[in-house]
Amino acid sequence: MTRTLLNAPTVRRGVAALAAVTGLIAVAGVAVPASADTAPLAYVAMGDSYSSGAGDLPLDLTAPPTCVRSTANYANDITRATGASLTDVTCSGATTANFTTSQGIGIAPQLDAVTSAAQLVTMTIGGNDSNVFANVMNDCTVASATTLGQGNPCEQQYGSSFADTINSTTYPAIVQALKAVKAKAPHARVAILGYPWIAPAAGGCYPTLPIAVGDIPYVHGIQATLNDAVRRAAGAAGAIYVDMSGPSNGHDACEAPGVRWVEPVVTTNSLSLGHPNVLGESEMAAQARSVLHLP
Fold this sequence. Notes:
By secondary structure, the chain is an alpha/beta fold.
């Protein structure tokens, strides 16, 4: 068999053509497989109990006990899907202030985990600022008991106070927290997730979710105000907003097990009362991966 030898100019043209094709593939958005020695994505997970997966089993036994961190939280789900290198400092009860201050003995400020090497940072944060989530649920639960679940006693008593606090105090605090993260990790994609629905838009399921039927739209509206503050803060700080309002419609705490993403207050199916269950955390991961174009 006769072999044809390629001269140098021909080889150079072939290499150039291959490079051009590879470039076109990249521009077209088709993934070019990474080499085997590509370093994993440097990923830092921050935030509160919706980030930590509070109450979901199995627990992360390496975390401070009061953080109630789960290995089934959305950060771990993202890590399992992407092969990222995860630093998880999520902690139940965290506020934006705990990005720079400790939550307690053995719990460092969350920003300590963020370095210039970080490539991805995710979080849910803001719901605990000024105890908004806790106060809404506690105060509206107490109010509902006075009317046996009828009417709108919580709205009548508290009016716009919760929403006013979110807009005047929580919103600027989230902006500041996001800017602080971006300053420490200037090359990272910084994403903040909204909170999946706790209450439906109307109806409710008293006493499983112990909110009076007339207060269900009120509580839903307060959470809508919080998610809007998160969205606006992401825009103001140049971060990425991961919407959970649309995706979690029909998956609130009043839905059946296997459908709901957040557990009601009275339940025997989970320890994550008023928080995302394992399904909810996995759906938060899926939405984040979609928005961030991760595998």
